[in-house]
Design goal:
It is built from ten helices and 15 strands. By secondary structure, the protein is of the alpha/beta class. It binds nicotinamide-adenine-dinucleotide.
Length: about 350
């Protein structure tokens, strides 16, 4: 099989996971990279052996050698670059979130349909092997109907600054950046029920807390603490058509005693936790059992999930199959995220 000719657009932090995973897959050739920051693009090209370096994604997309692209840029460019790539006849793997608004998401969906090319949304949590194990068990009905889920991603200090904190470029704060992962993960595990209403709150109380000393935290490639126009924290209750509900809380900063990641789902026949570690809760012989599956990793394995995501994208490109995280799911998740922001702004429940 001839390797798929790949280009990676945006060579900041997350691109290294895409590039390393493509590099590991013999079915891919990293042909080109692109970044507004030429030096950054050149460094990535050198490290991963890309033949071409671009600073303008339009020029990159005009290159007929390229068959598929990973889009690892700021959120405000996801829709624009995805649409241009599809129109140029390239397959697309776009980082989460799909984009910033429902309107943008629908335009991307239209472009997928019109182009006949595939678009995979980078909902990397779905591709973790523990998540796949649990999804397979849910498919077999082992948990019965999943009617309640709780998802928490609390950073006590972790506003990455730069574009992440600039609502124009990010579309929002912790909700759209890290909340998107756990909302999608729960929704996927619940069998993708139709959302019908959202009641939510967002807060801007603490700022980015760039004053805090003695505790380091993740910062964007172009860290800048001067601008912060996003929420510090968000919480939401999402109701689904089948009566199921999802409770979420996420923060970039909060007076919490530690960071916290919890993803828990509850069904009629059993429950399970994904974060902080995989555990299945069930009942046998009138006895409650907490079962710890013996798998390679107790919790989410970042590198492995990225490798699976990239392998899956390459398989879909080669075989013409629909990705596990198609554009339709990106659109649905955007509807939920935007409804959360709308509900918080109105101070009232929003119907979808
Ligand atoms: N899946 C995950 O777990 C995960 C984790 C982190 C980030 N992300 C997503 O990946 C994307 C990038 O995040 P990051 O942390 O790598 O940010 P980053 O700031 O480290 O890198 C982004 C890069 O994109 C470049 N860029 C921006 N607009 C561009 C354009 N029009 N053309 C070419 N280059 C452009 C910037 O110069 C920068 O080098 C975001 O959408 C983010 O939500 C996903």
């Amino acid at each position: 099989m001839k390797p798929v000719q790949i280009a990676v657009i945006g060579t900041g932090s997350i691109s290294s996971f895409h590039l390393a995973s493509y590099k590991n897959n013999p079915n891919a050739n990293i042909y080109a990279v692109c970044d507004l920051n030429e030096e950054r693009a050149k460094q990535a090209a050198e490290k991963y052996g890309a033949a071409k370096v671009y600073t303008d994604y339009r020029e990159l997309l005009a290159d007929p050698v390229i068959e598929a692209v990973s889009i690892c840029t700021w959120n405000n460019t996801h829709a624009e670059i995805s649409i241009a790539a599809l129109e140029a006849g390239k397959h697309v793997l776009v980082e989460k979130p799909l984009c910033r608004t429902v309107e943008e998401a629908l335009r991307v969906q239209e472009a997928v349909k019109a182009s006949g090319k595939l678009l995979q949304v980078g909902f990397v949590r779905r591709y973790d092997s523990n998540a796949q194990l649990l999804r397979a068990m849910a498919d077999r009905g082992e948990f019965g109907e999943i009617y309640f889920a709780k998802a928490s991603t609390i950073r006590r200090l972790g506003n990455p600054g730069g574009w992440f904190a600039d609502i124009e470029r990010s579309g929002g704060g912790p909700l759209i950046d890290i909340g998107v992962h756990v909302i999608d993960l729960c929704w996927y595990m619940m069998g993708r029920p139709k959302p019908v209403s959202v009641s939510a709150n967002t807060y801007r109380k603490l700022g980015n807390r760039s004053n805090v000393r003695h505790l380091s935290f993740y910062q964007a490639a172009d860290y800048d603490a001067n601008k912060n126009t996003v929420e510090d924290m968000a919480n939401a209750l999402i109701r689904f058509e089948n009566g199921a509900s999802l409770l979420v809380d996420v923060s970039f900063t909060l007076h919490a005693k530690s960071n916290e990641g919890a993803v828990k789902l509850y069904g009629e026949k059993g429950g399970f936790e994904i974060d902080p570690e995989t555990v299945i809760v069930t009942e046998q012989n009138d006895t409650i059992l907490n079962v710890y599956p013996q798998t390679d990793n107790k919790g989410f394995h970042f590198d492995g999930a990225f490798q699976n995501e990239i392998n899956h994208f390459l398989d879909c490109v080669s075989n013409g199959t629909t990705p596990l995280s198609p554009v339709e799911d990106g659109v649905e998740i955007m509807k939920i995220l935007i409804a959360i922001y709308e509900s918080a702004a109105k101070g009232a429940e929003v119907r979808l």
